[in-house]
From TrEMBL:
InterPro entries: LRR_dom_sf (IPR032675). This is TILB protein. The gene is Lrcc6. It comes from Pycnonotus jocosus (Red-whiskered bulbul). Signal peptide: none annotated. Keywords: Leucine-rich repeat, Repeat. It comes from the Eukaryota.
Length: 223
């Protein structure tokens, strides 16, 4: 009889026997590839895992075809709990292959810098609850229309003008330090004139005024 632990003997879904699911068919995959033998040796933990069989070039190519991340159009990679460097690297490896993804969720992954990643077709990106501190740390998303960055640590609006030449329509920056900046909404809309909605609120007439314009004047009556 099979032991209860037998269901956990595979490193990933690609190792399952008689599998028939491709990467572009997965909606919420988990990034759980373990460390390489070299990594285990450097960490002096080579005894913790059984020695893995040598993977041939043919098997590597078959696995790449099975993953098929290049054809993903919609993917949820949220709540990955990326606790080790090898998990982060595998996570970024998948992101680099998402050349056709249009909708992507990366919620609550403790991400700090994805500036080396390019998502050429991404129209909707949800990166809430991460550790981004600047717009410069976001991936390259030239076709972005809807961007959500709530509950990060973005302190200033420096770099937001990089989105001026994108089709960005809605932006969410709730619960970021930059939200408390003086004339916050005016500054955002002055940098992004094509933006239609900020933090769930449509663009208002007062948001279109230059940040340094005063709306109220004191009146003095001389008797």
């Amino acid at each position: 009889f099979e032991l209860p632990s037998d269901s956990f003997k595979y490193l990933g879904w690609c190792d399952l026997e008689e599998r028939g699911v491709g990467g572009n068919q997965l909606r919420c995959p988990r990034v759980r590839e373990g460390p390489s033998e070299e990594e285990l040796f450097l960490r002096k933990e080579e005894h913790t895992l059984k020695r893995r069989k040598q993977v041939t070039d043919t098997e590597k190519w078959e696995k790449r075809l099975q993953e098929n991340w290049e054809n993903c159009a919609e993917l949820n990679l949220s709540f990955q709990d990326l606790g080790d460097p090898y998990q982060v690297e595998n996570f970024k490896r998948i992101l680099r292959r998402l050349i056709r993804v249009e909708k992507l969720w990366l919620v609550d992954n403790s991400l700090t810098d994805l500036s080396a990643i390019r998502l050429p077709r991404c129209r909707e990106l949800n990166a809430n609850k991460n550790h981004f501190t600047s717009f410069k740390q976001l991936p390259k998303i030239p076709q972005i229309q809807h961007l959500s960055l709530a509950e990060n640590n973005i302190t200033t609006l420096r770099g937001i003008s990089d989105f001026r030449h994108t089709p960005l329509e809605s932006l969410i920056l709730k619960r970021n330090p930059c939200e408390f900046q003086e004339r916050y909404r005016q500054l955002v809309f002055s940098n992004l004139p094509n933006l239609k909605m900020l933090d769930g609120i449509p663009k208002l007439p007062e948001d279109c005024s230059p940040p340094d314009v005063r709306f109220f004047y004191r009146m003095c009556t001389i008797l």
